[in-house]
Every structure is written in C-alpha cells, then in structure tokens.
Amino acid sequence: MWFKSAQIYGLKLTAEQLALLRDDAKMEEILQQKAFRPCMAQELSTIGFAPLFGKLSEQMSFSQGNHRFLRLLEETKLLPSSVIKVALEDEISKKESALGRELHKNEIQTLKTAITGQLLERAFSSQREMLVCINFEQGYALVSVSSAKRAERAIAMLREAFGGTFPAKHYQPRCVVEDRLTSWIENQELPQVFTLGCDAILKSIDDLGGTVRVSRDDLSSEEILGHIKAGKVITELQVLFEDDISLVLTSDLVLKRMRPEDQYLEQNLPGKSDDALADMQSVLIVQADLFDRLIACLIKTFDCELE
Fold it and tell me: How far is CA 161 from CA 12, 18, 33, in A?
C-alpha cells in the first residue's frame, strides 16, 4: 500500500463533488459501477476500480479526515507486434501460394485483423495496480505511478465515475524547475526542508550534449559542479524531505523512489497487529500526513499554479 512514485494533480472541485467524496456510501456506489473486470477474448486491455484492500475487504475506497484512497487495476494482453507480424507473414505466404497471386492491401488488412483476434484469445495477460490519494480540502490528487500515460488513464476513470467530469490538472510551476534544481547544487542553497541525497541526472541543454547519471556520490563535489559549468542542468534530484521521506524529484514535478525513513515510521506507524486490515489502513494514514506536507511544500517552492 506504499506509494513508491506519484504523478501530482491539482483539483478544483465543485460543492457537489466535495459532498460526494465525503460520502462513503455514494463513493462505493459510483466506484462499483466502474469496477474492474478481466479482458474478454477480443479485448487488448481493461481498467477499473478494485477493492482497495484486496481480499481483506470488499470496500472500494477508504476515507480518513480529508483524504480518500482508491485502487485501480489494469489488465493488458501480452501480444507483441512481432508475434502478429510473423503469423501474418506466414498466412500471407500460404494464401498467395493457394491463389497464385499477391494479396491486395485490403485483403492483408482483413487477414491481420482475423489473426490478431485469434492470437488475442490465446494471449497471456498481466495485471498492474494504481493507487490514488485524494485530499479534497487541500485540493490535490496523487496517482502512484511515474508514467504520465498511466496516470491519465486513472484520471480518465475518475472522470467516468464522477459522471464525465473530474477537474484534475497538473500543477504548472512559474519557474523553470531544472534551473532551480541546478541552482540548489551550484549555489549550495537548498530550502531548509530538504537535505541533499546522492543520486541525480544531469542533461545538456543542447541536443548534442549527453546525459550524466550520478548514483551514490557527493552531489556537491567539484565533478558535479564541473558538469553544471559545462552547460548541464539537473533533471532529477534525490532529496530527503524534513528527514521523513526520501524521494527523487524530477523537472516535471514527478515523484519517484519514495521511501519513508525508518525513524519516521518508528515514531508514527503503529506496530503490526492481528488485524491486517487495520494495519493497511494505518499505512495509508501515515502516508497522507507526509503527502499533505510534501505537496504544500512543492507548490510553494516552485510557485505552482493550475493549468
């Protein structure tokens, strides 16, 4: 139940949407209407809401204070294009030999559609989950992936569940984030809430330059400063926020490799009990506190506004 990555969205919720998010029964109803189901024979992928705590409970969401947590499941058929290509070429060869002529373009397309359908019926599938945290008072939502494409699928499902509209947009910083991250290193002037980590990615500002990946190294070293003076900027930077959570912050304000510090967990997370469901709820509550402080800090640090 830990968010290891997150795409951040700002929310401008209507009074009706706020009331809905506060209502457990109504939330269960609308999420059930968009519940996950496995792919049918001819479907390449499906997505839907799933019980938040898996087999421990049928409830689709969990609310605590101003927060609501949701879970989505994606299922995708594993059908590489190379497999379709090989099968299609083989079938084209057989058809052309039987007919004594080359197949027309429309015939090949019809054949490809039929072969793809046949392969889909036999294809293996994989499932991946996404968690969503919504703070409806502070006005933000987090989706537990670094991929913008996957996060947008989650937001699209929320729009469907909310009757066609869910006002979630990425925050837009009024500064150039990579320039600000670079200045933190170059001038050794990190905001007090952050402690410098030891991983970073630096990229050249021109198309001819390269990329430098730094891992487990001193980011204030002369070598790093040399890369900056040569024209590279920091696009990903590992930091420790308020000594509570380690994360990698990207120039797109995406959060990666999030990991609460052991000391923070010892002080705030109750020990494991005989109630597995309560333990999972505790994990979510602890994260909610971190997210509220972190998101508020990022909005202020990078002077963000909604699109």
Answer: 17, 14, 7
pTM for the model stands at: 0.89
**What is the rounded distance in angstroms from the CA atom of residue 81 to the CA atom of residue 100?**
28
| SS3 state at 17 | helix
Q: Which residue has the tokens 């971190």?
A: 290
- Residue 245, phi then psi, degrees to nearest 5: -145, 135
- Residues, the chain: 307
Tell me which of 121 and 161 has the higher pLDDT: 161
Report how far residue 72's alpha carbon sits from residue 129's, in angstroms, rounded to the nearest whole number. 6
Environment class of 113 (CB within 10 Å of its CB; exposed 0-12, middle 13-18, buried 19+): exposed
Element (H, E) at 69: strand 67-77
* pLDDT tens, position by position, 246-283: 999 999 999 999 999 999 999 999 999 999 999 999 99
Q: How far is CA 255 from CA 4, 21, 127, 232, in A?
A: 8, 25, 23, 21
C-alpha 253/C-alpha 172 separation (Å) is 9
Task: Tell me the sheet residues that pair with 236.
Answer: 201, 250
DSSP 56: G
